[in-house]
Each structure stands twice: as structure tokens, then as C-alpha cells.
Amino acid sequence: MAHRFAALALIGLVHGAQAQSILYSPVAASSPDLVASMSETDFVRLLDHSGLATEFTSGVSAWEGYNDSDLCGSLHVPGAGDLEFWGLAQADLANLILDMGFEGTWDRMAIYNEETTGLGTQPTTLSFGPTANGPWEDVCTLALTNNPPSNSYRPDVLSFPPITTRFFRLIGAGSTFTTQGQYAFAVGEILVGTADVDGPTGACVQPCGPTSIKDRPKGAVNVLQLVMDQASGVVSISSDRALRSVACYNALGRLMATRTGAGTLDSSPWMAGIYVVHALTTDGAQCQTFLKAGWP
Fold it and tell me: Which of 2, 101, 250, 294 is deepest in the core (most CB within 10 A)?
């Protein structure tokens, strides 16, 4: 009984803890639709802080600490000389592929939509995939601010269920700027944050709109199944829904391991305690805990 109460206390600690989310900038970008408009600004300045009032260090700066309160106060100044990317499309559609440089687990993105063109007036779709060529899984639609005012402005800060991936795709449409019969798309800066236990919060954070991933109905049976082999430390993860990504955290909110799809996690090197598994399935986000016993 004492062990049960200790486990329940640790579960409470897990849900009250908050891991530190770290900011990353994509290391590369590409597009099957866009062609160069100006060579000095096309797909080459992924971490130049162009127009940002406060710079950040990719892989080091904390989301919460970046100019205070979830990027709300991090302003973009008008008249930036360079852009995150800028390209022209023959049709009013642009696929932008972002390479984060490594497979991480993410649950937030900040986009400084360029004040003249941006990603268009239509809802922008966020997807992820195992390679730069997909196959792609839609996550949600983004309600971006179209053509922000020319004075200083804040980014669109978006939250979504934890995703383990290296590659993101943004699809824009509804361009408001054309030149020589082509449609222009541009973004000033894109920042992606690593996942934490509670997810991004704050007045400036907006959840993505639904696409193929639906909110799980309240009271629905938990389809995420964990089987812990205490002797080996191997945790088997399965679901009666297709698993897309899995992330495991300790009681202090530290990210311990990630994987794509169903399979196993090796917890043998970890300390005894309660661990939380977050999974993204075709039926929405799921959460389940397991106890690693203190075997000698």
C-alpha cells in the first residue's frame, strides 16, 4: 500500500512538473514549388535573426526565457534586410520543407509572417514526415496573421500535440503579392520549441486548428497500452490506433526517449520511478504512465 501511495505522489509530481523547452531554428529549407526571386534572401538565412528585436541561440535559449513570456514580447522590427525564406511560385501554392537537423520531439512553433507577403491568406497546413520527401502526416492548420502591420509585431505562436520528427512541411496559399505572373511567399523567422510535459501556455499561444487529427472524446477508453518488463527494463508500447510518435518523460519533466510508431523503449539505464509516455495517434494525443521498480 505504501508503494501505491508513493507512485500516486510521483504521478502528481509528473503532471505538475514542466520541462524546459528549448528553441531551435531549422538548419535547412527547400521547396518543390518555389524558385529564387533574389539569391541573397532565398532559403539561405535560417538563423540570421533578421528583423528580430532580441536574438536567440538555437539549441540553447529557453522558450520561456526568450525575451519573457512565451515569445509574446519578442518583436520583429520593420524593414528587415533579409528573410527566413523568399520565393516565387507559378501557382498560388507553396510547400516549404523545414529540416531541423535531428529527430526531436516538438510541440510549439513561432512564425514571424513577412509583412508584405507571408504564407498567404488561406489556412496554412503543418505536416511532418520521416524524410524531406515525406510521406507527410497532417498535424493541424495554422491561423497566421496575414500581412502584419509594417511597425513592430509579434509572432504567431502555435501549439500542437508532441511530434517526434526531423522534418516539417508548411503549405501556404492565397498569396497577396505577385510579380511577373508569379506568386510570392515569404517568412521572416521560424522558431520551433522542444516538447515539455504541460505544453506551451500563455496569452500569445494559439492551438492549431484540426485537420486529420481529431480531439479525443472525453470518457473514451485509453487506447495506449504499456507493458513493462521489470527484469529487462524494456517497455512495450502499442495501441489499437496507429501510433505516429512517442515521447517519454521522467517525473521532473526531462525528455528521456522518443520513437516513431509502436515498439519498445529501453529504460534499463534510468533510475527507479514513475515515467510518462506521450503518444500521438490517428485518434489524437494520448498519455499513460508506468513504474520502473528499483531492482538491484
Answer: 250
